[in-house]
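Exam prep: given the inputs below (a chain plus adenosine-5'-diphosphate), describe the expected output before reading on.
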Amino acid sequence: MPSDNAAVMNSSEQWDRVCTKFLREFGQQAYTNWLEQVGFNGINNDTVSLVAPTRFVRDWIKSHYAPRLKDYFNADNPNIQNVAIYLPDGANSAIQAQQPQETVMTPAITVEKKSETSFEGSPLDERYTFESFVVGKSNELAYAAAKRITEAEEVAFNPLFLHGGVGLGKTHLMHAIAWEVIKNQPSKKVVYVSAEKFMFEFIAALRFKDTHAFKQKFRNVDLLMIDDVQFIANKDSTQEEFFHTFNTLIDNRCQVIITADRSPTDLEGIQDRIISRLGWGLVADIHPTDYELRLGILQSKADAASRKKSIANPNGTSEKLVIPIEVLEFLAGKITSNVRELEGALNRVIAYATLVGRHITMDMTREVLQDLIRANNRQVTIDEIQRKVAEYYNIRLAEMLSDRRARNIVRPRQIAMYLSKEMTKNSLPEIGRRFGGRDHTTVMHGIRKVEELMLDDHQIEEDVMRLKRLFEA
Ligand code: ADP
Ligand code: MG
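Solution:
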């Protein structure tokens, strides 16, 4: 747990050293195939915890490299007795569904010792704290509500329901709450699980006729957090159990926090009575990030990286890693999908720079992120083009798609066809179909007409340019 920053840094440094030793002993290929796939989840007492993306990777590392990993750790830290490799929540769910006795928390190498803290559930990511969470307009309500829960003596709102799209910080906030409560109110019992894990444990409990222990675990807590609750949509018996757990806790004035990828009322396949109770407390949504927040997040990640990483010079000296602000601005402007992808982009640039020992520049950034940047360039649709062009020329959308041949309708229609060809990947027949079922030759004729007009009608040329810019914004 991040109560002691020095210890946390120290343990991730130990991990860095383990990786270096592995690379030296087993080579780049083995490193890329195996160890690089693995996440380091911290050291708890005498146990290192790693997360492997798949059962296969986990088993391979377990059978081929586990003793060496322990040796490497022992070189820095003689206390380490076990190296436990977990699967992330949700990995190989099909397999787990058939074998619920082997749920995600089962360590591959050692049987996990009962931890001494008041925490139970899925492992917490030590990077997900309030300190590392950057607040902006889009997430300030969610952040404030999360903070409030860790500070309040009394339960302020119950449940807290956080929702928002993928990669916008819901899980980060939940872990931050858990860390904070574990640190400041150690007597409180905290449970954090994904809804998926909740379900697998429930299935296992049913199968082994041990629902009593299951109920004890989830109903006997001060703070229960269930992540990604949309997962239990259409899973009726799990919903039933969830509902009873939820009601018991709320009735006992224990705090419940739920996240989902959409609002309670938009959840489909979840019983109405549950939906209505989910909305009883505080519902806080996290909106997509804006440019300022993205830049803020990048700056904080870049600062952290500069403190830890350096560039090795050929002569054996090393220099601080510097990430130019223009690179951060470029990323904040280009990678708008979600924070996870934004972080991933920055990490790739940093990894490249430290690996090849070169300073980060704009050129390098463009080169390293080519594919990502292309994917983030917005895809314009025919619908959008039709709507915008109709709006621009002040005609109705229905007129654009109609058979009318009045000049003031024909021209915008042709321009919209031209832009559809230029800016989307649709074929001429497809474009024809979308323009009121016209033939592809009509579309071709329209496009040629616009090309001709652009050559000698300055106004048309300017209109087309302006429309294009509208879509590229
Ligand atoms: P979600 O659970 O909403 O899908 P996560 O909590 O897993 O998203 O966040 C994805 C990644 O983005 C994580 O690495 C997280 O630390 C990071 N992240 C998201 N929002 C922020 C923020 N406001 N400040 C710092 N990091 C953030
Ligand atoms: Mg999440």
